[in-house]
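Honest question from a wet-lab person: if I give you the sequences of every part of a complex, can you actually get the arrangement of the whole thing, not just the pieces? Trying it with mine:
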Amino acid sequence: MSDHRKVRNAKPQQAPADTPHRGAPRGGAPLPPPPHSDDTRLAIEIRELVEAGEMDEARERFADIVAMHQRRAVRIGFQYLRDSAEADEAVQDAFVKVFTHIASYREAWPFEVWFTRILINGCLDRRKSRARRERWFVQGDDHSQESATESTAGRSDPDPEERLLARERRGKLAEAIDRLDGRQRTVFMLCHYGDCSPREVSAMTGINESTVRVHLFRAVRKLRGFLGGKS
Amino acid sequence: MIGHSSHLKDDDLFECYLATRTGEEPDPRSMEHLADCDHCVTRYDEVVAFMDTTRQTAEAEADAQFPPERLLVQQQQILRRLEHVHRPGRVITFPGRDTLSGSRSVGRLTPRWLAAAAAAGLFIGVAVGGYFAPERFHRSATQQLAAARPMMVQPHPAAPTAIRVNSAPEDTPDDDAFLMELEVALARPHTRELQPFDAMTPHVQDITNQGR
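Yes, you can. This is the full assembly:
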């Protein structure tokens, strides 16, 4: 669980404005701070509304943020937890936590980075508690999850053979990702499923950016090896 | 086609893929090499295909678990939970605390007045009764004292009966007399079958006579 500790204790290393952009001439004048993204601007507005005590208005605006990040959040949550109900709860908890602590949000990093960090910490906590539970309790058959996936996937994919192959692919991929080291898994998921750049992952996890790149590359190489591709 | 002494390494190819995906500027040397080397282009395409496949597979799986209807429900649940954030919880005061506040109910005052009136009535009644019939009070008090005196004072020779009643050894003759009367009354058993048993049973009268 080394990844767990890292994400938990991570602090933004440097504000983006202070960090020279990759590809920018070294030693030159620092680039002007990039303009805030839509969600970051919205988060700043919500923070101001909360501080002004206009909670109803803040809640209305927050619904837009939820709509923006929900799809991505459930993808990350599901890949982490491999259980739709638990992923659902983890995503809900993350949004509620973000709103509760919106006053502590600082725009040094994009809102997406802050939110993802909260989400991943929640997912890692759940994985940890699940592992603790599994140590003590015998697990029952988990066919419900499997059948739920099939039933929902079946609506768009009527060919049974293709469905079977897709199911096999998913199983193999999930198993391969689960075999990755903690840090490699986190970095891979954030970069690949969470659409985060190595720099953003570095901000979320507290791992050096070049180390993030190394972890990512190693994770991909391992996955290709596990899945029968080139190692 | 230019001959290449060494191809791009795997991590270089992956950096190219990553740069393309995240919108960063790729390494110019790698890009130059890729422009000329078919072998590395094939390898690069393999990396891209692998990454795209894994991504699509995972996204399809997650999207199948979370169709738009479920996302909508989730969104509503989140907003419902947010309604309770930053709102102080309702505190239901303990009923006993109402008596401390200024708003006192009539229902709670009435029994108190009634109790006070009853106490006052009792006091007045005792006082008036004592005023109009002092001899009764005096007599009753004297009787109580007289009844308590024999228990408290030493036994007086003029009243031996009172002492005899409380002494246990003196009870025996009375009891013996009573039992003897009973035995005399039942001296003759009426049932013939029981007469041998009666003969074997010691009688109080005999024991008393022997003792004397």
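Two things worth pointing out. The radius of gyration of chain B is 58 Å. Chain B touches chain A at residues 10-11, 14-15, 18, 22, 24-25, 46-47, 50-51, 54-55, 57-67, 70-71, 74-75, 77-79, 81-83, 85-87 (CB under 8 Å).
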